[in-house]
Design brief:
By secondary structure, the chain is α/β, with parallel strands linked by helices. It is built from 13 helices and 21 strands.
């Protein structure tokens, strides 16, 4: 189930040309089965009609403090008290100033004063207005008051100036909402996650690799960040967008991944090796492209280091080491061997014999093995699978399994 499903989300729209972009936000949240209630300032109505948000949210749009509709005579109290989260997007300089001063002169500002829910503020304005000392002071004040202020993006403005002040793109904004709605049971923890394949160069045009898409590792990094962890993601080449909030390290070869992982492992409480690292690399790599008629039909290979095995040898007390394995048969037997041999606390076995799990799919069916037993996870999305794996990691920490 989506983290947004069934959540009461109040979206406050203020006077900015970026208001039209929030229509996409409302539409997507409604598709994720959130209960979306839009509150618009008078200035916002100059940029986009309330009817648009009403159609997309399937709920009445609130615009007036004192509505003629008796059912909404206390709208600010009802909206604020029933909200699971309040978003202000776009947040104009004027609205930010009002919130910082505790004003209650319209329906949106009174709703914010009447809520105990998390409030996320997405500033969007001209770059000079954003960098103005008064605006920056007001933003600092909001942060001190417990608001989450999401930094605007940089780029070309509607006024044709270039700088910081653009409303963040929806995928970035959405992750901050998901984090605010997620339990923060990993706060203070440092996670190291590896993902994707490695590429072992033959020459400048050719390489050895595998079918890993990186989707499972990226889902794990995203899930851990949402739940409060500081996440370092070491990734081989993929076509995926870097998850919001994570420290990202790009590598290509197994040797590069080995160096990156060992340099970050020491400070990590949890290491999750979800990458599909090539077992072998070419013994020699040509600096120039080898012509077709000069290619050797037998390719000499040399073994890459087993990163997970090396991590198991140096694992420190209290650190949790999680491995992944791709198997097509004898899942429990092969998983138990690797769990013991590599000194793991938990191993996730991907059944790659099925078309809907393992490599290059959006779903997964994972068998979890640890010293205490096994847990067959259901066929579900990789994001949902990541949450279930992180739940298991949290329970292992609670049971003090890591030695």
């Amino acid at each position: 189930m989506s983290v947004f499903a069934g959540k009461n989300i109040v979206v406050g729209v203020t006077g900015s040309i970026a208001a039209f972009k929030v229509a996409t936000w409302v539409s997507d949240l409604a598709k994720e089965e959130a209960l979306v209630h839009v509150v618009m300032s008078r200035a916002a109505e100059k940029f986009i009609a309330p009817l648009t948000f009403g159609a997309l949210s399937a709920n009445p749009v609130h615009t007036e403090m004192f509505s003629a509709d008796q059912h909404h005579s206390m709208a600010h109290i009802d909206l604020g008290s029933e909200a699971d989260i309040v978003l202000i997007a776009p947040a104009s300089a004027n609205t930010i100033a009002k919130l910082a001063g505790g004003f209650a002169d319209n329906l949106l500002t009174t709703t914010v004063l009447a809520t105990n829910a998390p409030v996320l503020v997405y500033p969007a304005m001209n770059s000079k207005m954003f960098s103005n000392r008064a605006t920056q002071r007001n933003i600092r004040k909001l942060k001190e008051m417990g608001f989450t202020v999401v930094d605007p993006a940089s780029g070309m403005m509607a006024c044709k100036e270039t700088g910081q002040g653009r409303l963040p793109e929806w995928p970035v904004a959405k992750e901050h909402i998901a984090k605010a709605l997620s339990k923060q049971d990993l706060k203070g923890q440092r996670f190291l996650v590896t993902a994707g394949p490695t590429r072992e160069s033959i020459d400048p045009a050719r390489y050895l690799s595998n079918r890993s898409s990186g989707k499972m590792g990226y889902a794990l990094a995203r899930c851990a960040w949402r739940r409060g962890a500081h996440v370092t993601l070491v990734s081989g080449p993929t076509s995926l967008s870097v998850p919001t909030g994570v420290e990202y390290v790009q590598v290509h070869s197994a040797l590069e991944m080995y160096d990156a992982v060992l340099s970050h492992a020491e400070v990590s409480q949890v290491v999750i090796k979800a990458a599909a690292v090539a077992d072998y690399r070419p013994e020699t790599q040509s600096r120039q492209k080898v012509k077709k008629d000069k290619i050797e039909l037998i390719l000499a290979l040399t073994q890459n280091p087993d990163i997970l095995f090396e991590l198991g040898k140096i694992k420190k007390k209290g650190q949790l080491l999680v491995g992944f394995a791709a198997e097509s048969e004898n899942l429990q037997e092969e998983g138990r061997k690797k769990l013991t041999k590599k000194n793991l606390d938990l191993i996730a076995i991907n059944d790659i014999s099925k078309s809907n799990s393992g490599f290059e799919t959006d779903t997964n069916r994972v068998l979890l093995l640890d010293a205490g037993g096994e847990n067959q996870l259901p066929l579900t999305s990789k994001d949902a699978t990541a949450n279930l794996i992180v739940d298991k990691i949290v329970s292992l920490f609670a049971n003090n399994c890591c030695t």
